[in-house]
Amino acid sequence: MFSIGDTILYTTSGICRVDSLIEKEFNGSLVSYYVLKPLFDSKTTLTVPVDNPITNTKLHQLLSKDDILALLQEYPSIEPYWIENENERKKHFSNILRTGNRKDTITMLKSIKNHQIGLKDRGRKLHACDEQTLKDATKLIADEFSIVLNMEKSYIVEMLNEPIKQ
Fold first, then answer.
1. How much is the pTM?
2. E strands along the chain, which residues?
3. CA-to-CA distance for 153 and 135, rounded, in angstroms?
4. Residue 130 has pLDDT above 60, yes or no
5. pLDDT tens profile 24-47
6. Half-sphere exposure of 111 (CA within 13 A, CB side)
7. How far apart are CA 86 and CA 151, in angstroms?
8. Which contacts qualify for 77-84: CB closer than 8 Å, 24 or more apart?
9. What gap in Å lies between CA 64 and CA 61, rounded to an integer?
10. pLDDT for position 166
11. What pairs with residue 26 in β-bridges?
């Protein structure tokens, strides 16, 4: 359970601060909810059930500085992969984004970027769904890493792009 003031990752909305805990009546009983404020969208407020098992898989504590530095150090040696079947790939990538495993997310990022380079060499572009997945994953990772490491998001994105260029 998270506390008021905690900064967390909500995989469907990015980095949020737990603004409050409230109770609302639902189907005749009181249900507890987190009130979340996305850090990069001040106009939005999210109400998320505390005890919903599906929602709970999407809420995560931010990684520690040491965990992020270890991931960034490991990033150049991560082997990219590609799933040729677009429907299987879309389902697989969506699952990665939904579950919030950061190592899987940066592996997916590297894989999409690697595929993008191969396509560019042949005068082609990514499919729209892969482009959107790349955008969403980059935002999730850059937002979290920049907050924890106290760095500009653009620098994090640059760090993630650097091993691809080599």
1. 0.89
2. 7-10, 14-26, 29-38, 46-49, 59-61
3. 13
4. yes
5. 988 899 999 999 999 999 899 999
6. 19
7. 35
8. 78/106, 78/107, 78/110, 80/107, 80/110, 80/111, 80/113, 80/114, 80/115, 81/107, 81/111, 82/111, 82/114, 82/115
9. 9
10. 41
11. 29
Domains delineated in the chain: 7-61 (2.40.10), 65-165 (1.20.58.1290)
d(CA 152, CA 156) in angstroms, rounded, equals: 7
The encoded tokens of residue 60 equal 């995560």
Match 């697989």 to its residue by tokens: 92
d(CA 153, CA 157): 6
Place of tokens 């850090």: 39
- Who contacts 12 (Cβ-Cβ below 8 Å, separation ≥6)? 58, 98
Quote the tokens at residue 25: 């009546």
